[in-house]
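Lesson 9: reading folded outputs for more than one chain in a single document. The general rule is that every protein is listed as its sequence immediately followed by its structure tokens, and records are never interleaved. Here is the first one.
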Amino acid sequence: MKSNEQGFYLQMKPDGTINGTKDENSDYTLFNLIPVGLRVVAIQGVKAGLYAAMNGEGFLYSSDLFTVEAKFKESVFENYYVIYSSTLFRQHESGRAWYLGLNKDGVVMKGNRVKKTKPSSHFVPRPIEVCMYKEPSLHDIEEKGRSRKNSGTEAPTLLNGGEKVVGQNSTEQDGGS
């Protein structure tokens, strides 16, 4: 993700360091933006395998586990820039959100010091690869159960709270023996 006007790319190194770099070809600037809710994402460094998270003091850190501190609200604005704010922490008195941001030297800023109107919080994600996954359905589970039955394995299809589901064809097969 590139900081819109600062010229830095957000990077996460394998040791967990999060900062900005001018090297647009660095492998550490690649992130998975994982949807975890409506307009909420987890930011995971591809090479590091760690999640970006913000603590209660506004400091950005990396975590090997996905926690509530690793959830960021993603807001897209005109010119396609994106800002990320903590879903957990805000200013106590004003209620203003805490944002992810890089200063003019590429150093990560405290979330409570970043304003959404300033270029330090504006990022432009570069899509490298979009992964689409088919949502599983009960129909798929039933089809797999039928193919197991035809292959000779006796593993029952479990649905309805663990009760064995009997297909229409199984009673005909059982009655004919």
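And here is the second record, again sequence then tokens.
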Amino acid sequence: MLPTFTWWNFSKWKTRRLFVSELLLVIGICILQNQEVKALPPVIRIGAIFTQDQKDSSMDFAFKYAVYRLNKDRTVLPNTTIVYDIQYVPPDDSFRTSKRVCRQLQNGVQALFGPSDALLGPHVQSICEALDVPHMESRLDLESNHKEFSVNLYPSQKLLNAAFKDVIKFLNWTKVAIVYEEDNDAAASNE
């Protein structure tokens, strides 16, 4: 049985951020062991950064639906409600995006999702790494640097190439053309 903690006992802001990442680990362990989690706050705020052209997009709806499903299934987090704060930012404006992320963090957001934009993503990731905030994103990232607080859900080019290869073999194709909008080392699929 886990001890009961009061969320407000932690005085420093950065300590709270580190605590949230540790909580995510504890949540995962407790869910796997089917034990009740009593150490969580009643409300967890998560933020999302989407570009303005992603408003009402499939990614926007998927994020909202994921939060809805988590809140509806009381076996996962029985005494905790997840609320989201979505900010829509102009594409190619890293300054405004950084300000919005900082405002979200000041308002108590404990984890961030997004953006999928190649220009804005590294800025948000940098802020999250500096402040020890858990960060999830889904964007093509050609850097293979390990980030301590960031998880990229987008498959690597190596995995995409392997998937294409498997499909080609399964369908017994002898010739194939894959057209990319941008050159992102996709030519390495000669295997």
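What the second record shows: The chain has five helices and five strands.
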